[in-house]
Design goal:
186 residues, alpha+beta, Umud Fragment, subunit A, 8-stranded antiparallel beta sheet, 4-stranded antiparallel beta sheet, 2 helices, 12 strands, 32% strand, transmembrane, Signal peptidase I
Amino acid sequence: MSDESAETHTGQGWPREMWEWFKMMAVALILVVLVHQYLFHVSAVRGNSMQPTLEEGEWLFINKTLRYAGSLQRGDIVVLREPADAEEGPTYLVKRVVAVAGDEVHIRRGKLYVNGKEADEPYTETSIQDGRFEPLTVADGYVFVMGDNRRRYASNDSRSFGAVPLSLVEGRAEWIVWPIRQWRNL
């Protein structure tokens, strides 16, 4: 009789065990989606617009919580949706915040000026080679972004599409996480 009860228990347990496994996987999937959507994700660098700071193929840890708590500052590296989205879907850019709301941005003689003072930009290797940019005051809820590579036509940034609404900023890049030998804070 004990053999029969063992078989009956196993027969009843299999569907229950599958249901428990399914619930656990569903909860895990929901958690992964929520973390990716609202907290952080990993993004790959494409192109050379952020050289020498970032190289193509590096992976960045992106902190998305700044959308809810905190604000962007000059010098932060961000991932943003390109303002002129392609029809196929969003294009993401990696850029540096060079001016925030209320700042006046001006480019002349290959130098960036913020609020009338030449910006200290130790992360660039060249002067700005794309000519002049007349003074622009960044509106509330916007940031002005540029790539670190200042060679002519190297970066599609606020010089071509203007200040970026904060709603297009996906998050701030905190670390390079791949390749491992490049792991560092940004």
